[in-house]
Amino acid sequence: MTLLQNMAPKKIKPNKRDVDSEEDEDEYRKKRDRNNLAVKRSRQKSKVKTMETLTRVNALKNENTILQEKVNTLTKELGFLKELFLAHAGTTDKSKFSDIDLQTLLADDADGESSK
Fold it and tell me: Which of helix, strand or coil describes residue 12?
């Protein structure tokens, strides 16, 4: 060997450990990317489900309010009809209902129900 041959830069071969390390890094990066996408999909799915649940809750609250108003109206009507029945069925004191216009009361109840 001559002096020039000894001084020429040698080609550096990557050792096996460097190659494995790069492959490991690439594999790790791929796994991280896949995981990040899965997490993003999961969070989006969770948000959609939460919004659907909130929408359902609000609809049920509205329905509950309407039904509660109907229960109140029917309870009042039942009470009135019980009193009317008892007054008509046997009590001698009919003065309690003498000045009540039944048609007006029924019209008021019908108006109240139709506006709901």
Answer: coil
